[in-house]
């Protein structure tokens, strides 16, 4: 098969960011005898075309190569709608995409996640989305302290803040409003979780690996990129069902789903359509990249 990996940054930036899992996917693909192509979104051109599709997509000023499957790795932090044209154009010309346009772009928006999960009846920590600083105090009164503040776009624990009281809340809300002018997510801090969460890796509606992440004693962010530690864990049937439902809510074929235990049962924190899996593979001994390539083989039946 000809398998593409679509990266949403320039080649130099991608190298500097050391994109999680990309090298492992390339290795696994080649071990399975496939040809792997790396595509960088900034090198794409989209224009009207004199063809049956009416649209032409170029890569480095040449027609986009024929691929049996393309795995998007949406490593961007900005507003997801800026990238919808790329996904829609590739879909329109017939490029087979994993986590297609209905999946990963909406799930990159944490505001949309809260609303989508709640509408679907998927349990999450109590939350509010506030746009005006003057509304934050009232929302905090309803939710109770301590709180977690989250910006709409971020990864690796960046843009996540712990707030103990009104005195610390309002200056932070003011700062974020001036800096970003974006809505802010306010979320009840789940004390009983002990500053830990669980990451489930979903491929094709199945959990293939899971780990528990624990924050440093001076932090509340359990993300590995924020200094958290990890150990393998076996999820309960309830947690497995929740993780699969969370991925399905955004039609994600591949997803990292973060859960947290609470006195009311397991809750979904968020879903990640661009999950890193190097640490997960290390602590569980499961070759996640190999599992992804095997799924691609099964999902896209035709072989070049």
Provide keyphrases for this structure:
Rossmann fold, Dna Ligase, domain 1, ATP-binding, ATP binding, single chain, D-amino Acid Aminotransferase, Chain A, domain 1, 4-stranded antiparallel β-sheet, metal-binding, globular, 10 helices, 304 residues, 3 domains, alpha+beta, 5-stranded antiparallel β-sheet, ATP-grasp, 26% strand, nucleotide-binding, 32% helix
Outline the secondary-structure elements.
Elements: E1 2-7, H1 11-17, H2 22-31, E2 35-40, E3 44-48, E4 55-59, E5 62-63, E6 69-73, H3 84-92, H4 104-107, H5 110-119, E7 127-130, H6 133-143, E8 147-150, E9 160-163, H7 166-179, E10 184-188, E11 196-203, E12 206-214, E13 229-232, H8 237-249, E14 254-260, E15 267-272, H9 278-284, H10 288-299
Parallel strand pairs: 1-2, 1-6
Antiparallel strand pairs: 3-4, 4-5, 7-10, 8-9, 8-10, 11-12, 11-14, 12-13, 14-15
**What integer value in Å does the Rg equal?**
20 Å
Q: And the CATH topology of the largest domain?
A: Rossmann fold
Number of domains: 3
Q: Report the average pLDDT across residues.
A: 88
Beta-strand portion reads: 25-35%
Keywords: ATP-binding, Ligase, Metal-binding, Nucleotide-binding
Domain ATP-grasp: 114-297
GO molecular function, one term: ligase activity, forming carbon-nitrogen bonds
Pfam families: RimK (PF08443)
Report on this model:
The protein is α+β, with helices and mostly antiparallel strands. The chain has three domains: 2-98, 3-Layer(aba) Sandwich (Rossmann fold), CATH 3.40.50.20; 126-189, Dna Ligase, domain 1; 192-272, D-amino Acid Aminotransferase, Chain A, domain 1, CATH 3.30.470.20. Helix content is 32%, strand content 26%. The protein contains ten helices and 15 strands. The strands form four sheets. It has a five-stranded antiparallel sheet, with helices on both faces. The protein has a four-stranded antiparallel sheet with strand order 7-10-8-9, sandwiched between helices. Strand 14 and strand 15 (267-272) form a beta hairpin. Helix 2 (22-31) crosses helix 10 and helix 6 crosses helix 7. The longest helix is centred in the middle third of the chain and has 14 residues, at 166-179. The radius of gyration is 20 Å and the shape is globular. The protein starts with a strand and ends in a 5-residue tail after the last helix. The model has no long low-confidence stretch (mean pLDDT 88).
